[in-house]
Amino acid sequence: MTVHVRITDTSFGVPAADVDVLLSRRVEDGWQEVLRGRTDPEGVLVMPPPADTQSGSALYRIECDLDTYYAVLGVVPLIARLTVEVRVEPDARLSLPLAFSAHSVLAYRGG
Questions:
Q1: Cα(21)–Cα(56) distance, rounded to whole angstroms?
Q2: Total structural domains in the chain?
Q3: β-pairing verdict for 30-38 and 44-47
Q4: What pTM does this model have?
Q5: 107 close to 96: Cβ distance less than 8 angstroms
Q6: Which structural domain range is residue 76 located in?
Q7: Which of 28, 29, 31, 47 lies most in the core, judged by the most C-beta atoms within 10 Å?
Q8: Would the pLDDT of 55 be above 90?
C-alpha cells in the first residue's frame, strides 16, 4: 500500500507546502502511528508501504496540521486539523487529493 497525498490551499490557490501529515492504522485498541512526514513545495507527500503491512483491507487515518500551517501565514483557521479516514487494500496505490482553506475542506479519491 502506498498513499500519495496532494494538498492544495484554496485560500491562496497554491500547493500547501510544509504541512505536517500523520498516517495511522486502525488497530484493535485504537490507532497506531505508521508514518509521519511533511509535504514538499508542490504540496505532495508520498507515504511508502509500512514494513508490517497486514493482509486484507485496513482503515487508515490521515491527519494534516492546519493550525501550524496557517500560523506561519498569520491566519487562525476554523479547521485546526484535517482528518480523513479511508479504507485501503494492502496492494493498493491510493491517490488522495485534499483541498482546504481556513474554513473548508474537500477530500476525494484521485486517479
A1: 24
A2: 1
A3: unpaired
A4: 0.86
A5: yes
A6: 2-107
A7: 47
A8: no
